[in-house]
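Re: the request from the purification team.
They wanted to know what the chain is likely to look like in 3D before they choose a buffer screen. I agreed to run a prediction and write the result into the notebook, where they can find it.
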Amino acid sequence: MPIKIPDQLPALSVLANENIFVMSENRAVNQDIRPMRVAILNLMPNKIEAEIQILRMLSNTPLQINIEFVRLHLNESKNTPKEHLDEFYCLFDDIKHKHYDGLIITGAPLGKLKYEEVSYWQKIAEVFTWAETNVTSTMYSCWAAHAALYFHHGLNRYLRKEKLSGVYSHNTVDPMEPLTRGFDEEFKVPHSRYGEITKADYQSISELNILAHSEQAGVYLVASKDKKHVFVTGHSEYDAGTLNDEYQRDISTGTAAQIPENYYKQDDVNSKPSNSWRSHGCLLFSNWLNYYVYQITPYKLET
């Protein structure tokens, strides 16, 4: 079964051209099954690009998934057309009476700000609290992972002197953990962040399990023992060229950016990067949907 998305969403044609199984809303309404209901709180500036990347990861599953895109406020975005936001996004305040099988909260370019300095901190804190009772399992990505760990467990990050940017090798911790079932013994993941939480800090919280880490990039995948929270510090959803786009953007703004590690062939920024992490990303999202959402969520959501 595929993900179900609105007929006019730009991601529909992009993913179809990649031979990824998606289903238009019109076709899906004729299927007599109980689809998973997954909300995506998209905090990324370029929302269309993030939509495509996340939907690509969610597509490799036998479950039918109804997707709802969510935003926190009505503020206009300089990177996403207002018409797109108005057509495909709903406000959190308009859906917070609902229950969802899964929730994904993306990263955000807020790496150097203190959490309380973020303009929408109070609102996203409200989302964190709401998800405790209205969502079966929530996946937090990059900045959202660190923000949720701070909110729920008081774990504060420290800021690296230089941005962690590149593609790094990782290893799993527990061979019996369902979220990492089927992972290779060594797998690659892109990272792009300033924030860091130490392994010792994670281990100080008894409710958390470290599931995967990297010698270079640190702890990558953490989950609560009750499976309600999954914290992902890397970006397995990234396209092959995303780190390059970020690097070129930093250079154009005068930032003293480091070349992403283990990314360009022989560190030649004119070479075309290749994607060596997509299979892992698809498996991570599929395992989350199956073992942390579908196997646990009630057959009938309250609303």
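For the purification team: DSSP finds ten helices and twelve strands in the chain.
Please add any questions underneath this entry.
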